[in-house]
C-alpha cells in the first residue's frame, strides 16, 4: 500500500483504540510507537510470517506482536468496515450496471464464488466438521467481486465440509433483496424487461433467477460464444481471490490462530484493506469511481419500502429468487444479446 494510505490507517486505529498510543511504562520509558505496532501487524498479514520472525525487526516481543495483530484487525474492521464492507447502495448499483452492460452483461452485479482457508490449529474434536474437499480442515469465504476486483460481499466462517450451495443457504447475500431494502434494478435484455439483478456463478450453484451460469455442454455457435463470455467474466471473483492472497499471504497459508473470532477479524480486515488499496490505486479520472470524496453513502433506509414487509411478500420474493424458469429465460436472452453484439462487431 502507499505511504499516504498507511499513515491514514495508523492515524485512524490510533484514534479508535487506545492500545496503539505510545505510553510510558512503570519506570517512565516510552513503549512502542503506533507505527511500530501497525508495521508489526501489517507485516504479519502481508507475509504470513510468525511473530518471532519479526521481533528483531520491530523491536517487540512475540506475545506483544500477536497482541498488536489482534487489536489491529479488530480496529480496522470497526473503523473502516462500514464503508469498505458495505453492500452496493443505489449509487454503487448504478455504476455496476453501467460497467457490466458495456461488457455485454446488462443487469449483472458481480461474480460469486467461495474460497477455502486452511485452519492449521483446528481443534481435534472439530476436524470432522471442518474437513471437506480440501486437504485438512478449512473455513470458507463466500465473496462477490466486480471487474476492478472490489469485493462487495464477504461472508466468512462456515466449516469447510460445506459446499457452495450449503454456504449460499446460510449467507446474507440476498438478505437486502428479501427484506425489500435492495436498490431498485431495471434493465432490458433482448427486448425483455427484468427487475432483479444477477450474479455470474459456476456450475454448482442452483438455477435461480439471481444467477447466470454457463452451459455445461454448449451446442451451437451462440451457446458456445455465451459460455466463453460468461466464463471469462466470472473470473473476476477468481482474480479477486488471487490478488487477496497475493497481497495478504496470511490467508494463503494455513491459519495459525486458535480462536474462530480472531480468524474472522483477520479475514474481514484483509478484505477491508484490499478494498482500500484498490480505491487508493484507482485512476482519479475514472468515470466509474466507486467512492466519491464528500458524496454521502446511501443507507438502506434511503431506498427501502415505505410499508413493512409482510410474510406473503417475503415468500413471494423468495419464490422469485429461486424461479428456475426465470433463470433459463434470462440466460436465453443473454445468449441472443451477446450473439447480436458479436455479429455486429
- The N- and C-terminal alpha carbons lie at a distance of 40 Å
Mean pLDDT: 87
Number of helices: 12
Radius of gyration: 22 Å
- The low-pLDDT segments are 289-306
What share of residues is helical? Answer: 40-55%
User: How many strands, which pairing sense, and closed or not: the largest β-sheet?
Assistant: 5 strands, mixed
Strand content: 5-15%
Number of domains: 2
Shape: elongated
Q: Order of helices and strands, N to C?
A: HHHHHEHEEHHEEEEHHHH
Q: How many strands appear in the DSSP assignment? A: 7
Q: Quickly give the structural class.
A: alpha/beta
Strand order of the largest sheet: 3-2-1-6-7
SSE arrangement:
Layout: H1 3-16, H2 34-47, H3 55-58, H4 62-84, H5 90-102, E1 108-118, H6 127-130, E2 138-145, E3 151-159, H7 164-170, H8 175-178, E4 187-189, E5 192-194, E6 198-201, E7 211-213, H9 221-247, H10 260-281, H11 311-321, H12 324-344
What does this structure look like?
This protein is α/β, with parallel strands linked by helices. Helices cover 48% and strands 12% of the residues. It contains twelve helices and seven strands. Residues 289-306 have low confidence and may be disordered.
Quickly list its features.
2 domains, single chain, 5-stranded mixed beta sheet, alpha/beta, 345 residues, 7 strands
Amino acid at each position: 500500500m502507499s505511504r499516504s494510505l498507511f499513515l491514514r490507517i495508523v492515524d485512524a486505529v490510533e484514534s479508535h483504540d487506545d492500545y496503539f498510543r505510545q505510553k510510558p511504562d512503570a519506570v517512565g520509558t516510552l513503549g512502542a510507537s503506533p507505527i511500530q505496532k501497525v508495521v508489526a501487524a501489517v507485516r504479519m498479514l502481508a507475509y504470513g510470517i510468525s511473530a518471532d520472525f519479526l521481533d528483531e525487526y520491530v523491536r517487540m516481543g512475540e506475545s506483544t506482536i500477536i497482541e498488536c495483530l489482534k487489536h489491529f484487525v479488530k480496529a480496522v474492521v470497526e473503523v473502516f468496515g462500514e464503508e469498505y464492507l458495505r453492500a452496493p447502495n443505489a449509487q454503487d448499483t448504478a455504476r455496476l450496471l453501467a460497467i457490466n452492460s458495456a461488457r455485454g452483461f446488462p443487469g449483472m452485479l458481480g461474480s460469486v464464488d467461495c474460497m477455502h482457508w486452511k485452519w492449521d490449529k483446528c481443534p481435534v474434536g472439530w476436524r470432522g466438521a471442518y474437513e471437506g474437499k480440501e486437504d485438512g480442515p478449512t473455513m470458507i469465504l463466500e465473496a462477490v467481486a466486480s471487474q476492478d476486483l472490489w469485493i462487495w460481499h464477504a461472508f466468512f466462517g462456515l466449516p469447510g465440509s460445506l459446499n457452495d450451495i450449503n454456504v449460499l443457504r446460510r449467507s446474507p447475500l440476498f438478505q437486502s433483496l428479501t427484506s425489500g431494502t435492495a436498490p431498485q434494478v431495471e434493465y432490458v435484455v433482448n427486448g425483455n424487461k427484468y427487475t432483479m439483478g444477477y450474479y455470474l456463478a459456476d456450475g454448482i450453484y442452483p438455477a435461480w433467477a439471481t444467477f447466470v451460469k454457463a452451459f455445461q455442454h454448449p451446442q451451437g455457435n451462440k451457446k458456445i460464444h455465451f459460455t466463453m463470455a460468461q466464463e471469462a467474466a466470472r473470473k473476476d471473483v477468481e482474480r479477486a481471490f488471487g490478488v487477496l492472497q497475493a497481497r495478504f499471504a496470511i490467508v494463503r497459508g494455513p491459519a495459525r490462530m486458535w480462536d474462530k473470532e480472531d480468524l474472522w477479524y483477520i479475514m474481514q480486515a484483509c478484505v477491508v484493506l484490499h478494498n482500500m488499496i484498490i480505491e487508493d490505486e484507482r485512476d482519479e479520472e475514472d468515470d466509474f469511481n466507486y467512492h466519491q470524496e464528500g458524496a454521502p453513502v446511501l443507507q438502506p433506509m434511503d431506498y427501502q419500502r415505505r410499508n413493512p414487509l409482510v410474510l406473503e411478500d417475503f415468500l413471494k420474493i423468495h419464490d422469485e429468487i429461486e424461479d428456475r424458469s426465470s433463470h433459463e429465460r434470462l440466460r436465453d436472452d443473454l445468449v441472443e444479446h451477446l450473439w447480436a453484439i458479436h455479429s455486429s462487431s
